[in-house]
Design goal:
With 319 residues, the protein is of the alpha/beta class. The protein has helices at 5-19, 24-31, 47-62, 80-92, 109-117, 131-136, 148-160, 179-194, 209-222, 234-246, 265-270, 281-297; strands at residues 36-43, 68-74, 97-100, 121-125, 143-145, 168-173, 198-204, 226-231, 254-256, 275-278, 307-309, 313-316.
Length: 319
């Protein structure tokens, strides 16, 4: 039956009044979107960051209803310019949160300020941003990660137990403008100093296998009495092992690393690498993502002086 015109008007009015009674929370739930979290890492040629990415993707799959993940990495450890471009792309994409392992502790701060100014929640993982530069830009970015100095000292102390006072060692450092490289070198030096072992050279291997190999080979040639090489990450330690073998000093020059990547596990077992530190790569990004999601919800992060410390453990042949 067709209603007269006045009746149709009344029906429309009643329908409108009923729909206005739908709770605001229900209407919001229908339009609310999952937050977009961007994970920006360093070189995906490094097994450590591939493991980190895999861990983040697995976590997102388990929590698919909570957030969407966009992951990116650069080609090599020192490609700072490309990492800056990736962050700029994430700003344009209007992500809600950015979890970043910066390739450079200072150079990334200006673009991170742009992200903060755009309303993006930023969480720093792996390599801590420079505190003084952050302060100069009037921004605070929480750091989620291990105490790199402590981890490196654990490795250095274990090595020192296999050496004698007065022995000569060399340190193969990561990218020297990164805080984690500086902290790991400091931890190695703390351990060597405490054991009265002489650090004859500190040179950068840029976190990479080939560069680590070249630096190790040069040190072995320049310092024939070298007893050990302390590498700031396992990729450089892999390069150092090759250099030791090529120099005919296998078993005579000890090598230690940092990260506990899968590639060094057979070498830990057979003694080519004496020790490393495990900072739980598969969980590193997850710790950062969890902090970012808390920040988006306005929940306290539980940081101490802007730092949320994550575990780091010594790994040797026995473990």
């Amino acid at each position: 039956m067709k209603l007269p015109f006045a009746g149709r008007l009344l029906a429309v009015a009643v329908f409108a009044s009923l729909t206005s009674l739908v709770p605001l929370s229900s209407a919001y739930a229908q339009t609310e979107q999952k937050p977009k979290v961007a994970l920006v890492m360093k070189s995906l040629a490094n097994e450590f960051f591939l493991t980190m990415e895999d861990g983040a993707k697995a976590y997102q799959k388990e929590h698919a209803g909570d957030f969407d993940l966009i992951s990116n990495g650069i080609k090599d450890e020192s490609d700072t310019a490309s990492q800056i471009r990736i962050v700029e792309q994430m700003i344009v994409s209007k992500v809600d949160a950015l979890v970043i392992a910066p390739a450079d502790s200072k150079a990334l701060v200006p673009v991170i300020k742009k992200a903060v100014d755009a309303g993006i929640k930023v969480v720093n993982i792996d390599n801590q941003l420079d505190a003084a530069v952050l302060k100069s830009k009037s921004i605070e970015v929480p750091f989620v990660g291990p105490d790199n100095r402590k981890g490196a000292q654990l490795v250095g102390d274990y090595l020192a137990g296999q050496l004698q006072a007065g022995d000569e060692v060399g340190i193969i450092e990561g990218v020297p403008t990164t805080t984690n490289a500086q902290q790991r070198t400091a931890g190695f030096q703390d351990a060597m100093q405490a054991a009265q072992i002489k650090v004859v050279s500190v040179q950068s291997g840029n976190w990479e296998i080939d560069k680590g190999n070249a630096v190790a080979a040069a040190m072995l040639n320049e310092y024939p009495n070298l007893k050990a090489l302390l590498a700031g990450n396992d990729s450089m330690a892999l390069g150092a092992v090759s250099a030791v073998r090529a120099a005919g000093k296998a078993g005579k020059v000890k090598v230690v690393g940092y990260d506990n990547i899968n590639a060094i596990k057979p070498m830990l077992k057979d003694g080519r690498i004496l020790a490393t530190a495990d900072q739980f790569a598969a969980r590193q990004a997850v710790f950062g993502i969890e902090a970012a999601l808390k920040s988006l919800k306005g929940e306290p992060l539980g940081s101490v002086n802007g730092v949320i410390q994550t575990p780091v453990e010594l790994v040797t042949q026995a473990r």
